[in-house]
Amino acid sequence: MLAVIDYGGGNLGSLVAALERRRADFIVTADAEVVAQAEGTILPGDGAFGATMEALRARRLDRAIVQTIDRNKPFLGICVGMQILFENSTEFGGAPGLAVLPGEVARFKHGPRIPHMGWNNLELLRDSGEAKTQPKHPFVAGLGENDYAYFLHSYRVPVGSATVAAATHGERFSAVVARDNVMGTQFHPEKSQKTGARLLDNFLAIVETARKDRTTT
């Protein structure tokens, strides 16, 4: 079963509907033990970085997330759910993250308008950070150059070693990150039409493959 984390601040409705359309086997939960035992986990996030971390810690969900990642189970963070995977954020005076991935979340410095709101095209990346047509992680398999996603955010993660797709809003930033069993999108895939649909399908396939691998070892 897939766990969708409800920490009291995420926007769950559209994600739940998208998973139901795919007939995914999932549970919406705030129970850390359920998250730790799930075959895969999705953390949809809205709001401030620090408040999200506080809500997760209050429910011991921060430990459950790290535990499921350490067990090599697939994890998908959405919007702020992606940002908290990084070391820290400068939002509202600063707050530490889970430090699963290296990097700092900071406000746009050169965006023409803040927040960044609306459709923007994605740029698939090479290991070196340059554009390419073949993705470097199965999470972004099937995406094409210049596929679009819908964004709404004021803080961003710079392009780094875990970035598999970038976007530009005055400056390049991480639109999609993926490393091993850890994946994240700055945008909400369930609101990003065919691009988001592809990513959700890919994540569910990754969860199923991981489950089968565990049952045969």
Q: Any descriptors?
A:
single chain; 217 residues; alpha/beta; four-stranded mixed sheet; 6 helices; 28% strand
Number of helices: 6
Distance between the terminal alpha carbons, to the nearest Å?
A: 19 Å
Portion of residues in beta strands equals 25-35%
Strand order of the largest sheet: 2-1-3-4-14-13-12-9
Structural class: alpha/beta
Shape: globular
Helix content: 25-40%
Q: What can you tell me about this protein's structure?
A:
The structure is a single chain. Helices cover 29% and strands 28% of the residues. It contains six helices and 14 strands. The chain has helices spanning 13-21, 32-37, 49-58, 61-70, 80-83, 193-215, and strands spanning 2-5, 26-29, 40-45, 75-79, 88-89, 95-96, 104-107, 116-121, 123-124, 148-153, 155-156, 163-168, 172-179, 182-185. The two termini are 19 Å apart.
List the helices and strands and how they pair.
Blueprint (H helix, E strand, L loop, with lengths): L1 E4 L7 H9 L4 E4 L2 H6 L2 E6 L3 H10 L2 H10 L4 E5 H4 L4 E2 L5 E2 L7 E4 L8 E6 L1 E2 L23 E6 L1 E2 L6 E6 L3 E8 L2 E4 L7 H23 L2
Parallel strand pairs: 1-2, 1-3, 3-4, 4-14, 5-7
Antiparallel strand pairs: 5-6, 7-11, 8-10, 9-12, 12-13, 13-14
